[in-house]
Every structure is written in structure tokens, then in C-alpha cells.
Amino acid sequence: VITYWAPYVWLGDGVRPDVRIQVYGGRIVAVEAATSSVSGDQRLPGIVLPGFANTHSHAFHRALRGRTHDRGGTFWTWRERMYQVAAQLDPAGYLALATATYAEMALAGITAVGEFHYLHHQADGSPYHEPNAMGHALIEAARRAGIRITLLDACYLSADSTGRSPHPRQRRFSDPNVAAWSARVAELRSTDERHARIGVAAHSVRAVPAAALPAVAAAAGDGPLHVHVSEQPAENDECQATYGMSPTELLHRSGVLGPGATAVHATHLTGTDIAVLAETGTSISICGTTERDLADGIGPARQLADAGCPITLGTDQHAVIDMFEEARALEMDERLASGERGRFSPAQLVTAMTGHASLGWDGAGRIATGCRADLVSVRLDSARTAGCDPAQAVFAATAADVDTVIVDGRVVVRGGRHTLGDVGSLLLAAIEPICTAPA
Ligand SMILES: [Zn+2]
Is 333 among the residues known to form the active site? Predict the structure, then answer.
């Protein structure tokens, strides 16, 4: 049994001072009030929060950070740059980039990632000798970085809703048909269920024609199923033109929505869409820093939450990897759009930061007996956090204030340092060969 003591711990819906947490076998076995640490206790500084869940990631987009702002690129020119980066990656290069990216996530207090994986094949679209080589690289990357992964293998079949064949630069993402995708995903197995699990995704109603959507839903079984929904008005227009309904309605009629499903972005919704998402128990992954970076718009997060949808958060294209920033984006964007403060309480923001259920991980996201020992200690004495009310630390802290990160009982970050060493150097070594190569 390892015993931790912290001056502040997030328990239930708020902060308790002076708490001792006992950990054994990767689980929390006791949580108790203790006015001071005793010999044998490991002292965690600041406030201890449950480990964060990053419910939407494309690991390779990390190579785009700070490289897409020239000449005022639009969403579609950003996408061109993304294709250029994708074209440079092979399994070894992706392993290096994803390991560094997931290590950056660990530094930010993220203990589980939902990797929405669509970079499947060789640059010409032909499969690797091992057809899931890229997926296995992502699972191995998370293992090295010390965080859990739910690999959401994304079905990607067409260039648009009319079913046009993928553009040459989209061929790496694409399988010949939904049966071939499903057969490949069936071969994708986690060798260690404690660390990695397999889920599925439909890339979007642009990339998966309606006829293929029921097969994606069937492949999900009881596991997680994620899908990009209504990120851009153009996607809604195209879906209306092709099917005469919104993406949400199409996904609902195709059996995609439900308690295991997560709608990513959900930015441009109708009132009917919101009701359907709520009635089906679908979770939402809001990716605020990406949505603002790409000028997507502000989604109806408060309406979705009021309707009953669980709200989770994702760093998506990794313009920043900072779950505090994602949480604040949720509230601050609401403030700008509504003209009101206090749309999401600090407790609701912490709940959104810890949406592990969207990734199929039970017993995570809470500090309580029997739960996974995912603990994130955040300094309250930094230049950013000094003087803040611990109960409102989510409005002051950044990823740079994360001191210690424990994932399933294992210390991955201590004193703000990852066990792999200097994560900046790892990122540079992984990104430079990709971004200096000719497009
Ligand atoms: Zn995405």
C-alpha cells in the first residue's frame, strides 16, 4: 500500500482539506481525513484532482502546432497542411511522434486518451504488411508515455456525402469498403486490457456514406463509438443536400447514437438535434481550443448539458494540450455567446475534464475507494495559481502547474518531469523530420 497525503483533494463535487489517499494494485483503497502527513506518507503538493480524460485526439496533428497561421489559413487550408504532415508519417515516425505527444498529455495531467485514428495505410493507400501497424504504434506510444488509450479506429470511405472516392491524399485514411474496415478492426486487439482498449469511430457523415453507418454501429458492439458531428456548416449543408436531414438525424436513423456513443464537436446543431442526442444518451466531446483555432463556431454546450448529454473535453488537433484551457474554453465561450457568467460551475468543469466513461474506462474520474488510482496534483504556489481559492483552481491553473501525475497507481510525472525525460526534446526530434521534409 502506498499512502499519499495532500493539503487539498477534489472529492465528489468539491474540495476537502487534509486528505490521505491509500493506493494498492492500481486502485484507491482508502480516502480519509488526516490533519497532517505522517512518516511514510508521500506528500503531494497543492490540490489533487482525478486524472483527466482527453476524449478526442489525433496525435499526428501535434506536428501542426504553430505552423498553420500564415496567410490567414481557413479550415480547408488547415486541412491541406494536415494532409502534408500525414503524408510524411510511417509507423516508426508515428510511434516517435505519438509517444512524445502522449508524454505531453501526461505532463498536463491526462491519464487516458481517446485516439480517433484514421491514418491507417501507406501513402498510396495500400495496407502495410501488418494492416494495423499504425494502430499498434499508437497503442505502444501510450504504453511508453504511461497513459491509457482507447484506440478509436475510424471508418473513412468517401470524400463527401455523395460517396465520391477519397481524394488521393485521403487514401491512407480509407479502407476499400465497410466490410474491409470491419475485418481489419476485428484483428486489432489490445494485448493488455488494463492499458489499452479498442473502440471504433465513424469519421463523419462526409467520410462514411449512410449505407455503411449501420455496419459501423454493429462493429462497436458495447464499446465506445465516436463520430465527428456538425463541426462546420458546410457539413450540414452537404448532408441536407444528399439525405434531406441533419448529420445528427442521419446518425440516429443509422443506429449510431446511444449511451456508448460520443458526438465530437456538435457545434452547429438544431433544437431537434440536441433533443435526439440527449434522448439517446449520447456523450459530447467539446474541443474548444480546436474549435476556436479553426473558427468553427461556439457549440450549444449548456443546452446539451441541460438536455442531459454528458459533456467531455478533447484537445483534438493539439493547438494546445491543456485540459484547464479546454475547461475554461467551455465556460468562457458560453460567457461570450450568452452574455452571462457562471454557465458551468467549477464542479461541472472538473466533471467534463474527467469523462473517462466516454472512452469505456469504468471507475475512473473520481477519487473514491475502489476507483482507479489516477491522481493529478496541481501546484497552488505558482505565479499563476498563488492566492487562488483551491475550489476555483480550475479557473487559474494551467498544464504547467501540474506537479505529479499517477496513472493506475504508477507515478508517470513527478515534480513536473516525465519519467521519459525532456518531452520538448522528444517532440522536436519527432516533428523536425516531418516538417522539414518537402511537401
Ligand atoms: Zn477530430
Answer: no
